[in-house]
Specification:
Chain A: It comes from Ilumatobacter coccineus (strain NBRC 103263 / KCTC 29153 / YM16-304). Chain A: Its EC number is 1.2.99.2. The structure holds 2 protein chains of 2 kinds. Helix content of chain A is 28%, strand content 23%. Chain A is α+β, with helices and mostly antiparallel strands. In chain A, the strands form 7 sheets. Chain A has a 7-stranded mixed β-sheet with strand order 3-5-1-12-9-10-11, with helices on both faces. A 5-stranded mixed β-sheet of chain A has the order 7-15-14-13-8. Chain B is of the alpha+beta class. Chain B folds into 2 domains: 2-75, Roll (Ubiquitin-like (UB roll)), CATH 3.10.20.30; 86-151, Orthogonal Bundle (DNA polymerase, domain 1). In chain B, a hairpin with a 2-residue loop joins strand 3 and strand 4 (54-57). The chains are: A alpha+beta, B alpha+beta.
Chain lengths: 800, 152
């Protein structure tokens, strides 16, 4: 797949056809040899180590705190309580997505002052000479807690029987409806008058992102002048910079954020955390570097959780199975406080509840988010879209069972036809491109769907111990959240643009500066491929700079599968802008009209004059010496582009799998997994496949294993990797990926995002297979995760 | 107490607290930060190193338990001229890493696995890597990498 001539610029960049190749990653040698530096690896002479004392109670008032014994310990520099630091903060910790004007948002400070509202809520912190001493000191701090009743059930929380934040008077944070005004009433009419209606309740269990690198922070004050550098294992250095400046009252120009190598994020590092603010605040206070390393058990309690919704869905269809109406009621669990973008997560799902199907504007959506005495939730891989996709796809299977038709056939009857793209959806948003039947057909072939159905009929006879289940899910994903104007209508406090600067250096080597912040996605490789293709050079001659606000001052970072469809496209546009300028210089040198110049393979040529050519390197050097430039043209080849896309990008796909369930033990084995993810034009298929593999396993893990379990008192019972089941290699199957490429018409590269696609498709695919395997026994549904015990219990209940 | 460990062929002598874990000795005292810490329950394998040629989780041993012994870390895998070890090369060629945090431990565990079983089946590779968690790759390309290294 190559870029054709861009009609907007006339630049034809078929230099060396690097786009679409499986180029090995530039990032790998440093990571493979241990040379890469993660935040925790930094050697910072004279740094003090911070440790945080965390509430053992889910809900408790904080009485007196005795820190004297901790302070007396040799090597302890200071101990602070929430009250001690009250004056350190210019404002509470940020929530950047006030989805409604009347959203209730309790003041949230890096250390709790009067009340702890979840297990893991910070109540005091220590600065000491070593990490070990800091942790020893934590055990010497004596806190008088007055335990209160903990609220861990969402509907119980909504009853306001116990109010967590007294000043709010209620546990409900907001209710956000999506009302299609001109069609109000259509949804109810569909429910009353349609041939089929299914009404289901699904529980999206709480998940813990569990990036392999726990968080780590180093705050380093400059010795003079008040400048501060914050090194953090974050996905969002630019957002963190502005939020840290605001929260601590630091002039923003004095704040620099750097994220070195970051060991996975999945949304869990898309936040502004207490420990980041504490390290910066305390480093300013004591005038020394302050660092903090998160332990895994802290990571499970104090880094955000994901999902945590209750979904009530009603789906109506006519006698042929064509959808006629959809109603959704959500309860979102925010946990103890509102984190950075948490309130927006259920909203993002609202636009995807109809999946890839034609739905009349008979849609009625409302979500209510509520505070509970559990770890705050926020965006986790897919953020609202996996939940929505699960609900529609699982309900589609329920509808197919009700109608007695094949679930794949039901989906085909409802696919948005390819000819109708770009397609204005029931929500008013416009889907850019799609070919759902193709994706489904490719998956069907790879899985041998028909063959498996035949095998299933033979295998699933009465008395069979092992039953075969086949799962299908189709999905739409919306990513590259933009344009900024649309985000404004959702009350999101930031834009959706991304920045790129491209420089051709005097020696003709190329620097790309991006506002994205990769942590496993391989942007250094992909962005250099985009630039290499544009300039007709070797990707090895392109260097990509990122994740340091002093080097890349403009950016909105990496989350929500936005990097390529916004940031990567910006890189391509900045290359075009540089090429346009270079063209003027080359034309001037060759005494030609710039409009007569062609650029390919790294060489400018005058159309129709084969003897006249000038390589990029010569132009770069001329631009640098500035000895003979066109009148009025500034020296140097450097251009910056800020790209605000006109629309979201809409990846889509079909996943299929086969599972076998042992009815005696309840164990589910995934025999085969097929993923066909269409993310438009692929810059590097190697990286695309890797993203899909990882995404699928995270979705599969939600279906079968993972759950943040709390007891009635709000104690997290799965706070280590020994209790929280992140799958190992032996738990998961190989994943067959199938190809479907439907370019996006929205951007000149034709790309869409892919980071979350696998996760979005996987959980419903696996759960549909589980229920499919057991429906012959009378099992109608199982809530995630489908653990052996739950599956066995469901079989037993159906038998009795 | 003084603990002497030969790491990647170089003798290290450090005065450490008795409670110092091997992983902390390697990272903080020997200054070799390629070995990572991912959990506190010996579940994740990010800290895997070779002790006397066998893969161990360096967070489950005291440094004192390795006194007088040989440790190899990820920094000791590539040749002096920078040529990658065949296992590292296989990971690179098969996109067996994304964020790279689990990678040093994976490479150490996988190398040890092939030392014990030069021609494993896919299932044996998956079982052999059970003690090393990865959150990025879904293991597909890690397994592919190890099988490729075995047949290299």
């Amino acid at each position: 797949m190559t870029i054709t001539e861009d009609p907007a610029t006339g630049n034809n960049a078929l230099g060396n056809n690097v786009l679409g190749t499986r180029l090995l990653r530039k990032e790998d040698p440093a990571l493979l040899t241990g040379e890469a530096v993660f935040a925790n690896d930094m050697k910072v002479p004279g740094a003090l180590y911070m440790a945080v004392l965390r509430s053992p109670y889910a809900h408790a008032t904080i009485g007196s705190i005795d820190t004297s014994a901790a302070l007396a310990l040799d090597g302890v520099h200071a101990v602070y309580t929430g009250a001690d630091l009250r004056d350190t903060w210019a404002s509470p910790m940020p929530c950047a997505w006030p989805v409604t004007d009347d959203m209730k948002n309790p003041a949230h400070y890096p250390l709790a002052v009067d009340k702890a509202v979840y297990v893991g809520d910070g109540v005091a912190c220590v600065l000491a000479e070593t990490d070990a001493i800091a942790h020893d000191a934590l055990e010497l701090i004596d806190v008088e807690y007055e335990p209160l009743e903990a609220i861990t059930d969402l509907e119980d929380a909504l009853s306001d029987r116990v109010v967590i934040h007294d000043e709010l008077g209620t546990n409900a944070s907001y209710t956000w409806p999506l009302v299609i005004e001109e069609n109000e009433g259509d949804c109810e009419a569909a429910m009353q008058n349609s041939a089929y209606v299914v009404k289901e309740r699904y529980v999206q269990q709480r998940l813990i992102p569990m990036a392999m690198e726990p968080r780590a922070v180093v705050a380093q004050p400059e010795p003079f002048g008040g400048n501060m550098t914050l090194y953090s294992s974050t996905q969002v250095p630019h957002i963190l910079k502005v939020m840290t400046a605001l929260t601590l009252g630091i002039p923003e120009q004095q704040m620099r954020v750097v994220c070195p190598a970051v060991g996975g994020g999945f949304g869990s590092k898309l936040n502004v955390y207490a420990e980041e603010l504490l390290c910066v605040g305390l480093a300013r206070k004591v005038g020394k570097p302050v660092r903090w390393n998160e332990e895994r058990s802290e990571n499970a309690q104090a880094t955000i959780h994901g999902r945590a919704q209750i979904q009530d869905i009603e789906l109506a269809a006519d006698e042929n199975g064509k959808l006629t109406g959809l109603r959704v009621r959500l309860i979102g669990d925010m946990g103890g406080y509102l984190q950075l973008v948490a309130p927006g997560v259920p909203l993002l799902g609202a636009f995807l509840y109809a999946g890839v199907y034609e739905l009349p504007k008979a849609f009625d959506f409302s979500c209510t988010s509520v505070f509970t005495n559990m770890t705050p939730t926020d965006a986790y891989r897919g953020a609202g879209r996996p939940e929505a996709t699960y609900a529609i796809e699982h309900a589609m299977d329920a509808l197919a069972r009700k109608m007695g038709i094949d679930p794949l056939e039901l989906r085909r009857r409802n696919f948005i036809p390819t000819v109708k793209y770009p397609y204005e959806a029931y929500t008013g948003l416009v889907y850019d491109s799609g070919d759902h039947d193709k994706a489904a057909t490719v998956a069907e072939g790879l899985l041998d769907y028909a063959g498996l159905r035949a095998r299933q009929a033979e295998q699933n006879v009465p008395g069979a111990r092992k039953r075969l289940g086949i799962g299908v899910s189709t999905y739409f994903e919306m990513c590259g959240l933009a344009p900024s104007r649309v985000l404004a209508s959702l009350n999101y406090s930031a834009g959706g643009w991304e920045s790129a600067t491209v420089r051709v250096l005097p020696t003709s080597k190329i620097q790309v500066v991006t506002g994205t912040s990769p942590h496993g996605q391989g942007h250094e490789t992909s962005w250099s491929m985009i630039a290499a293709e544009k300039f007709g050079v070797d990707p090895a001659d392109v260097d990509v700079l990122h994740s340091d606000t002093a080097i890349a001052p403009l950016g909105l970072d990496t989350y929500g599968s936005r990097s390529l469809p916004v940031g990567g496209v910006a890189v391509g546009m900045a290359c075009d802008k540089v090429i346009d300028k270079a063209k003027q210089i080359a034309a001037h040198q060759m005494e030609a009209n710039p409009d007569d110049l062609e650029f390919s393979g790294g060489v400018f040529r005058v159309a129709g004059q084969p003897d006249k050519e000038m390589p990029l390197a010569a132009v770069a050097f001329e631009a640098f010496t500035a000895h003979d430039l066109p009148d009025g043209l500034e020296p140097n080849l450097e251009e910056q582009v800020t790209y605000d896309p006109p629309n979201f990008s809409w990846p889509f796909g079909t996943h299929m799998c086969a599972v076998e369930i042992d009815t005696e033990t309840g164990r589910t084995e995934v025999l085969q997994y097929v993923a066909v993810d269409d993310c438009g034009v692929q810059v590097n298929p190697l990286i695309v496949e890797g993203q899909v593999h990882g995404g699928v396993v995270q979705g599969l893990a939600q279906a079968l294993w993972e759950e943040a379990r709390y007891d009635d008192d709000g104690n997290l019972q799965s706070s280590t990797l020994a209790e929280y089941l992140v799958p190992a290699a032996s738990d998961v199957p190989n994943i067959t990926t199938g190809e479907s490429v439907t370019p996006s018409p929205t951007n000149p590269l034709g790309v869409k995002g892919v980071g979350e696609a696998g996760t979005i498709g996987a959980a419903p695919c696996v759960m549909n297979a589980v229920v499919d395997a057991l429906s012959g026994l009378g099992v109608t549904d199982i809530q995630m995760p489908a653990t052996p015990l739950k599956v066995w219990q469901a079989i037993e209940d159906a038998r009795s | 107490m003084e603990v002497t460990i030969t790491i990647n062929g170089e003798e290290q002598k450090h005065d450490v607290e008795a409670r110092t874990l091997l992983v902390h000795y390697i990272r903080e005292h020997a200054g070799l930060t390629g070995t990572n810490i991912g959990c506190d329950t010996s579940s994740c394998g990010a800290c895997s190193v070779h002790l006397n040629g066998e893969a161990v989780k360096s967070c489950t041993l005291l440094a004192a338990q390795a006194d007088g012994q040989e440790v190899r870390t990820i920094e000791g895998m590539a040749a002096a001229d920078g040529t990658l070890h065949p296992m590292q090369q296989a990971f690179m060629e098969n996109h067996g890493l994304q964020c790279g945090y689990c990678t040093p431990g994976m490479v150490m565990a996988a190398t040890s696995l092939l030392d014990e079983n030069a021609n494993p089946t896919e299932e044996e590779v998956r079982l052999g890597l059970e003690g090393n968690l990865c959150r990025c790759t879904g293991y597909h390309n890690i397994v592919k990498s190890v099988l490729a290294a075995a047949s290299a």
